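User: For my dataset I need records formatted as: sequence, then structure tokens, nothing else. Please produce one.
Assistant:
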Amino acid sequence: MKKIIITGAHGQDGIILSKILKNKNYKVFGVVKKTNKKKNFRGVKYYKCDLINYKNIYKIFNKIKPDCIVHFGCKNPSYKELGKKNDFFHNNFKAIKNLSKYIITNNKKIKLIFPGSSQMYGNKKKRVNENQKFSPNNSYARFRVSGHNYLMKCKKKYNLFITTTILFNHDSVFRNKKFILPRVIKAIKMGNKNFIKKISKESICADFSHAYDICYAIYLLIKSKNNIDKIILSSNKLTYLNDIINFIYKINGYNYRLNKTSRVNKNIIGNNKLAKKLLKWRMKKNIFIASKEMLINKNLLF
């Protein structure tokens, strides 16, 4: 039975991937910065670990002896920090170095999956694929690109199994409340039409997916023998936030509707053809299903 370590196991993707892997009979170990029993999933063993401290990593990881590491455990900066140099870049990069050091010095056969971000491509406002160059325009994106480049150098030098998964927007009931869709759901549940009117004027659109689909693709990558450098995981289309809002109003029978949004490509779209081909990946859900689940989930904490 293969053993998988998930760093950042209490985040949205860590929780969902843990559930998928347990259902597939993997041994799953969650690495977290702070313990939180409310977010623990039955059958997953959790360890409190500072990824900046290599001795801490060695002690825990050598006890587990993993076959694969999925590194979700990156601290994200606040919106105010995006354009500035700050400690989050240094600390996150140090964690990547420590993880790769552990693999290089202990077992080069360990698979490492490093989740990247669509922000690595900047604001190209067009469809992108794995062959296009990155053009990060904030410190968060620059860290992701720098992390990818460093890992690819290690991969080439030591013949490692490392893949960067470039993740586009994805949501679920486990999404952090600070993100846009949970804020919209909260406003609708509380009847805050002023917020909805304000946000609707921005005509926000993005490549949105259900987080389950994205995490299921990562599961397929874990069991795959393909050792590719990077792979895009996305819905392959744009969805307007206003359309999601209209959908929620409709299923609730509310007598309120936003103006129809213009179907103009105003944002970056991820081409997911490589993932579909190599992983035989097929999406089972979508962002509208995620929105409905978030609306009716009584345990969704705001």
